[in-house]
UniProtKB/TrEMBL annotation:
Keywords: Oxidoreductase. This is Nitroreductase family protein. Residues 108-156 form the Nitroreductase domain. PANTHER family: NAD(P)H NITROREDUCTASE YDGI-RELATED, PROTEIN DRGA. Belongs to the nitroreductase family. Gene3D superfamilies: NADH Oxidase. The lineage of its organism: Bacteria, Pseudomonadati, Pseudomonadota, Gammaproteobacteria, Alteromonadales. Pfam families: Nitroreductase. It comes from Pseudoalteromonas fenneropenaei.
Amino acid sequence: MMISNERLHKAMRERRAIKHFEASFEVPASDRDYILHFAQDLDLGLATLPLRICRVTDKALREQIREVGYNQPQHTGASELWVVCIDTDVLAQDNNTHLRDQAMFYGAAYSQALMVAAASLGYDSCPMIGFKFAAVSELISLPDNYVLCNFVVFGKRNKAPLPRGSKLSLNDILFTNELAQR
Ligand SMILES: Cc1cc2nc3c(=O)[nH]c(=O)nc-3n(C[C@H](O)[C@H](O)[C@H](O)COP(=O)(O)O)c2cc1C
């Protein structure tokens, strides 16, 4: 299945970070596969895909994550909780000091792709870093060579988000030739 331009546009413009989800809703496996394929197809210039996802389905584990996640409702309420990780063995090893930076860059890009794909199927989502990374790493038995980047949770909202915050004007974002202070 391809995402039409119209659906992609709508997914990107209208998706919001959702806090409250319909916990009883189940995302069909075919939709999960579609979302994963979309991220898999993202071209980030690497020969081998570094993306690793730990899909947390165990309810007790979700509760434990919530305990180390500042009691945020998404941790137990979202249909899907995916821990987005990067396998650093797949990244260029020539500059180890920047390995974590690289991993976070890739993790963010894949997460965006996952959320856009989810939105194109009508799902709500939220990127999340509101949890104790070391505690979650232990809970999911993260191997040493993986970097945990963030969660992507998705499902169906059961509460509308607050109105969007104000945005910068395009003039405040776009500079020409030099980024001098105005
Ligand atoms: C890297 C990152 C981490 C985030 N972590 C959380 C989180 O832990 N909990 C949460 O409720 N929202 C989290 N958010 C969502 C932001 O709160 C949300 O994107 C912001 O409020 C803007 O809302 P909007 O995307 O609906 O416009 C995170 C967003 C980003 C980009």
